[in-house]
Amino acid sequence: MDILQFLEKGGVIVYILILINIVGFTLIFTELFNIYKFKKHIAQSIDYIFQRVQNNHEDLLDMIVQQEIKKLEFGLNTIKIIATIAPLLGLLGTVVGIFTSFDEISKVGLDDPMNFSSGISVALITTIVGLVVSIPHYIFYNYFIGTLDNTEITLKSEVLNKL
To answer: What are the sequence ranges of the domains in the chain?
Structure first.
């Protein structure tokens, strides 16, 4: 069985998972690019923040740094939502597949396992795809949060060193 047959057997829930996976990875690559670009020009951001807080406005430092970091957080909530709902969608597919199997068993009995195996197949495929979608999104979300926290600390300390 090739990958397309595997995904086709999973039904509509697998296609939903594929769609949110595409959206999620688009956001992940966008975030990776934005963080790379920001870190490449971090000295300019430090100078910008320094200029705004230079005149004894250290109380503004937190607010200005937060504004800079907020710009980099675009899409993180969506990535987190995908990491959260993908296994739930996989579980939904599991329940639907098991339900379909039991429904088929109640109609035709247990004489021919082929009659209810497709429901079990849907259950397993959607569970697998849900986890495969969720795991990288969860990893990248946590990586981005850690990176942005470190970037925030770096910005604050560099600006305070200049004051």
So the answer is: 8-162
Take residue 72 and report the two structure tokens written for it. Answer: 């980099």
pLDDT digits (tens, 9 = 90+) for 74-130: 999 999 999 999 999 999 999 999 998 888 888 887 777 777 788 888 899 999 999
Place of tokens 């925030």: 152
* Token pair for 106: 């109640």
Measure the N-to-C terminal CA separation of the chain; round to a whole number of Å: 64
3-state class (DSSP) for residue 2? coil
CA dihedral (10, 11, 16, 22) in degrees, to 10, reads 50
Residue 140 is encoded by which pair of tokens? Answer: 């990248």
d(Cα 128, Cα 52) in Å, to the nearest integer?
Answer: 50
Residue with tokens 């430090």: 46
Tokens at 73, concatenated: 């957080």
